[in-house]
Amino acid sequence: MTAQRHHGMDWLRIGAFALLILYHIGMYFVPWGWHVKIAQPLDWVAIPMLATNGWRLALLFLVSGYASAALFAKLGGSTSFARSRSARLLIPLIFAVVVVIPPQPWIDLAGQHGYPHDFLHFWLHDYFGFKFIDGIALPTWQHLWFVVYLWVYTMLAALVLALLPAGTRRGIADGAARLLNGWGLLAVPIVGWIAIYLVFPDHDETHALFDDGPSHLHYLMAFAVGWLLRVRPVLFDAAARWWKLALALALIAFVPIAWIEWTWPGDTVAPNWVFLPYHIARQVNGWMAIIALVGIADRYWNRDHPKRAMLAEAVFPFYIMHQSIIVVVGWYLLRANVAALPSFVILIAATVTGCWLFYWIGRSIGWLRPLIGLQRQ
């Protein structure tokens, strides 16, 4: 185990969350269902969106696994680790569910389901009703499902590490590192992901925690590899060795994905034969892109910068706030019938500005810091 900080993984985490924010801005324009949509969705936007669709969330779990392992090593025990993770994840989750997220389901209901009441009535009388309205669960964690899943995975890690003797833990880590070293880092997770798909081909992610088993298997694999990268950093050598090949394979695997989406865009029903190659290509594209990014981060980004610490701290508050800003601003852009290009510019400007204000104000007020995911000073 190494105590040295890997700045490349910090930059990868920052970039992954920045990409997530840009992806959610894209959801306003793409034909797929979402909380609020531009009046005339753009089919072609699905192509660049799909270029990240197979790996962006798994990458977040991988870098979170790496950061969780670093925190566990720093705190030195399962109890303190579980306590720290619970405070940093659950307090802002509860705050966001109560204060930040409610505009999203209200806009969804008002814009697409004919909900007749204004936001204040919704927040005071319906949002905390612990019920469904037109299939929408209230209250809801919306995009913060990632925080819920991450908390569950970290609690599972804390439990396993508390139950296993230190020697057993070292043996498991050594065995996993041997399995993933060399070609194994490319092949083993892909085989696992493809097997999950073949066993559960009809599963769609629900983000509802208890009925999302195949998704948990998929993301737990990425989380575990991220953890292993921290406790057995020799695996970075494998990523450095194979990242160029992984990048080439990721690009090749994206070709059938893009072709299928281009041939049957939007709501067009594709023939049954395309689903198997599409999803297998998606698994290959996803894992190969992750290994390519880890290799690039290790080779080129493993260096500090005066802004790194601040950006790393800002990531979680940005994540908490960004989607509510996008949905609210998108709602007003839709009602004003603003065209696609100015809508895109406005959404980026409003989201970046709103998130910076949320972070800047919250970090400067002591009692607000835990509510937006920051440590107390």
Tell me what you see in this structure.
With 377 residues, the protein is mostly helical. It has one domain. Helix content is 71%, strand content 2%. The model has no long low-confidence stretch (mean pLDDT 95).
Helix content: over 70%
User: What topology, given as strand order, has the largest sheet?
Assistant: 1-2
Please give the number of β-strands: 2
Provide the β-strand percentage band.
under 5%
Distance between the termini: 29 Å
Count of all domains: 1
How many alpha or pi helices?
Answer: 14
SSE string, helix = H, strand = E? HHHHHHEEHHHHHHHH
| Cα shape | globular
Mean pLDDT: 95
In short:
A two-stranded antiparallel sheet has the order 1-2.
Features:
mainly alpha; 377 residues; single chain; globular
